[in-house]
Amino acid sequence: MVSIGMIAALELRNVTKRFVAGWGSCVASADVLRGVSVAVAAGESLALAGPSGVGKSTLLLCAAGLLGHDGGEVRWFGDSARSVAARHAHYWCAPADLLRPPPGDKPGIHLLDLALD
User: Fold this and answer.
1) In angstroms, rounded to a whole number, what is the distance separating the alpha carbons of residues 49 and 17?
2) pLDDT in tens, the chain (117 residues)
3) b/e string for 26-56 if b means 16 or more Cβ within 10 A?
């Protein structure tokens, strides 16, 4: 848990993401993330669990800077630039990825997006 005065390794504040598909008057949209807030301290572990389609991967992709969010704020070590996310997020989406060492020597967070079927 992040205490007062401590900078979180990863902090998401009121993050929103909407997907829109279609053209003209035939448009559909889905609000996938609606005001998600979470803070992760250095050395802390956090797990996201839930059924398919509830936004777990979308949240991790937004946190890693690989997908833009529509609203709110994503901060890595106090900095909200997407380039900072690219330096600190280690995004793994296949079991074989876990065998590779993380790039660089900067502090980071491992974002594991693995199917459990």
Assistant:
1) 18
2) 555 557 889 999 999 999 999 998 999 999 999 999 999 998 888 888 888 889 999 999 999 898 999 999 999 999 999 888 878 887 777 777 767 766 666 667 777 777 765
3) eeeeeebbeebeebbeeeeeeeeeeeeeebe
The C-alpha R_g of the chain, in whole angstroms, comes to 15
> Looking at the DSSP assignment, which residues form a beta bridge with residue 47?
none
Residues 63/48, Cβ–Cβ less than 8 Å: no
Identify the residue whose tokens are 């777990």: 56
Task: Give the chain's end-to-end CA distance (angstroms, integer).
Answer: 30
Strand partners, 112: 92
